[in-house]
């Protein structure tokens, strides 16, 4: 699994030095993004976005971008891109890694192979899921001054814990979070993991959810919790990541193929 996740990636010998500076936004783009963020936080409808945009545009004499246009702008600025991956129509597996070239599902359940075709008669995928790279999301968080500082909370806790341990071996240890836990210190000292302050620790949570009452469909949601963030904010919806959702109708068979 680790090799499949890495793919052809190799760590560069010299750190990448060039950082592209963000371009200056126009007044219209800034206002549109602020309006879009407020609309998202209020869980507004598409009609609400359009009507409020008309009022804002009339009051300020500044163009407010359409919902489609502002979404495209947000994706471009954050560099987040949704990717589609073919999956088995029965949600058994995703066609990734070593299964990327397969044309039928080979997942076996109760000694029976699914064998559902990947493509329809027109050669189109019968089922797909949308995936957003967690690396892209973390990269976007590091591009923001506020969230970049918050992402260093784990490393700051680790440094404080190591400092106290170095001062005295008789110290009574207390734990408050992953950052000062024995697990974190073991990973740091013995396995040489999380040596860089920018390293990210993630906790994966997956579970099924019945989204509708009238249809039998077990949608499977993957949630990534960023352990680098302070405990008081990391579990908020705005700070958790949902890289993909398996649309159903059944629970995933080969879960690793989706991850």
TrEMBL record:
The family database entries (Pfam families) matched by this protein are listed as:
Transposase_21
Stored InterPro entries: Transposase_21
Identify this protein by name.
Answer: Uncharacterized protein
| Organism of this sequence | Amanita muscaria (strain Koide BX008)
């Amino acid at each position: 699994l680790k090799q499949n996740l890495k793919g052809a990636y190799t760590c560069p010998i010299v750190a990448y030095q060039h950082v592209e500076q963000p371009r200056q936004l126009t007044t219209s783009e800034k206002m549109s993004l602020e309006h879009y963020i407020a609309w998202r936080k209020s869980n507004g409808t598409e009609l609400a976005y359009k009507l409020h945009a008309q009022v804002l545009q009339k009051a300020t004499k500044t163009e407010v971008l359409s919902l489609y246009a502002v979404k495209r702008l947000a994706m471009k600025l954050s560099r987040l891109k949704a990717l589609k991956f073919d999956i088995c129509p029965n949600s058994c597996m995703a066609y990734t890694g070593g299964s990327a070239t397969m044309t039928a599902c080979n997942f076996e359940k109760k000694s029976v192979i699914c064998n559902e075709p990947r493509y329809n008669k027109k050669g189109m995928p019968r089922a797909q899921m949308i995936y957003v790279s967690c690396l892209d999301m973390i990269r976007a968080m590091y591009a923001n001054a506020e969230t970049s500082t918050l992402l260093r909370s784990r490393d700051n806790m680790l440094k404080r814990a190591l400092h106290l341990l170095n001062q005295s071996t008789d110290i009574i240890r207390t734990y408050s979070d992953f950052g000062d836990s024995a697990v974190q210190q073991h990973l740091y000292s013995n396995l040489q993991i999380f040596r860089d302050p920018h390293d990210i620790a993630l906790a994966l949570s997956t579970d099924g959810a019945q989204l509708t009452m009238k249809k039998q469909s077990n949608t499977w949601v993957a949630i990534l919790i960023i352990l680098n963030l302070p405990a008081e904010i990391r579990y908020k919806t705005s700070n958790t990541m949902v890289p993909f959702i398996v649309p159903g109708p059944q629970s995933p068979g080969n879960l690793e193929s989706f991850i």
